[in-house]
Amino acid sequence: MRPRLPGRSRRGLAVLVVALLAVGAFFARGPIGLGNGPLTFASDSGGTLGLARQANTALVVPVRNPGKSAAVINGFTLIGGGKGYAAPKLVHSYSAHSHGCQGLMMAGDVTAGGCVSGEMKLAGLTVPPSKKKAGPGVPAPVPVPSVALVLVLAPPAAGTCWTLRRLAVHYRVGIRHFTATTPEQTAVCAPGLGESARQAALASVGG
Known about the structure:
Layout: H1 7-29, E1 40-41, E2 48-50, E3 57-64, E4 71-80, E5 90-98, E6 103-106, H2 107-112, E7 116-120, E8 126-127, E9 131-132, E10 142-143, E11 147-153, E12 161-173, E13 176-182, E14 186-189, H3 195-203
Parallel strand pairs: 2-14
Antiparallel strand pairs: 1-3, 3-6, 3-11, 4-8, 4-12, 5-7, 5-11, 9-10, 12-13, 12-14
């Protein structure tokens, strides 16, 4: 017969285990930052796209870093679907130099139209501060080239639409980890579906 710990001892042991797990998580990942952190991500909330043909689309999300230190992108999470609509399926993702565009568009138009250039790996991407520090010969902070996240998404199945509710981007600054969430609230519909179908899909995500 195994000896049983008194109730108070069992509770104390449980608290100790939870505390040790929390300490382990701290050393494994670093402290969790509060809020969205310093990075800002452009949102395309309220947009719809009706496809003329079945083709991939791309969501272009410019990134700014108004902070003082570089940030490193760890990854992202697409949050979509619900109320009878599917979530978008990711085909490919990358980062690129941004030339001033954002939002949903046909994937082939992104690079062909000069929207972005220089495809780079997204995970591990370093986002420098958006302005260089003032220094000798530089009387005031000056802007630096910006980057964008490019998410290539598969078209919806025939006769349907998919919806995207939010985009959550996971990144770190030093040892602090953040998750910045943007309310994308967009919808893409297959060829042959009209404006009413697009608006119904958008309404399902609160657009």
